[in-house]
Amino acid sequence: AQRVTQPEKLLSVFKGAPVELKCNYSYSGSPELFWYVQYSRQRLQLLLRHISRESIKGFTADLNKGETSFHLKKPFAQEEDSAMYYCALSGRGTSYGKLTFGQGTILTVHP
Amino acid sequence: DSGVTQTPKHLITATGQRVTLRCSPRSGDLSVYWYQQSLDQGLQFLIQYYNGEERAKGNILERFSAQQFPDLHSELNLSSLELGDSALYFCASSVAIAASGATDTQYFGPGTRLTVL
User: Which one, A15, A65, B45, B79, has least CB within 10 Å?
Assistant: First the structure.
């Protein structure tokens, strides 16, 4: 079975502070990991995926297979980063393409 | 705007009723996915279609069914509605199901908010 855990439901930081949103996963095999963001009253948008290794809006995430983690990081948070963040996993085989989401973390960046 | 459209935006109905939610994927996308977002369960995968055929099933209740039509739009039918079915229902689409290689990016629609009274 595949599972994604985001241990923090709420995360508050001040503008300019570093931020790390935690994500741990459980999957037997090689998963693909994603971070999706949902701004207030908007649709889910892909923020980044581990295979592309790119940085979007200053966010980065590294897949750590040993710790089965895919934490999202940003060195200097901005107020516009306030949103709901979801970590998601896609497996292979019959569940290929289906996304399993974590419970989400609401990030609030205070001025 | 991801190009995925969903109608209606809001739906208010009573227990025991039946509703149909509609999704139009991005142009060229063959795969459609349905997800349910609720306060207690979070975001959960319901079902996936590829080019008209069901490909994967998640935590979808027997009271719920879906289909994908030849023009690739999809409908999610919810029947014998209960209070607990109140949720935001998202549709997503992707180009295809990759036989190998990377998972296609899923693009989400704005969702349909269902309220069951």
Answer: A65
Nearest to B2 by CA among B93, B67, B69: B93
> Which chain A residues are closer than 8 Å to B29 by Cβ?
none
CB crowding B66-100: b at 16 or more within 10 Å, else e: bebeeebbbbbebeebeeebbbebbbbbbeebeee
Q: Alpha-carbon distance A106 to A84, whole Å?
A: 4
For residue B32, the chain A residues in CB contact (below 8 A) are none
Give the model confidence (pLDDT) of B38-52 as tens digits. Answer: 888 889 999 999 999
Indicate whether B88 pLDDT > 80. Answer: yes
pLDDT tens column, A77-93: 999 999 999 999 987 65
Smallest Cα distance from A48 to chain B, Å = 10
Distance between B115 CA and the closest CA of chain A, angstroms: 17
Whether A97 sits inside 8 A of B48 (CB atoms) is yes
Residues of A in Cβ contact (< 8 Å) with B92: 44, 99
Helix (H, G, I), strand (E, B) or coil at B54: strand
- The Cα A21–Cα A12 span in angstroms is 11
Cis status of the peptide bond prior to B8, with omega within 30 of 0: yes
Compute how many other C-beta atoms are within 10 angstroms of the C-beta atom of residue B6. Answer: 20
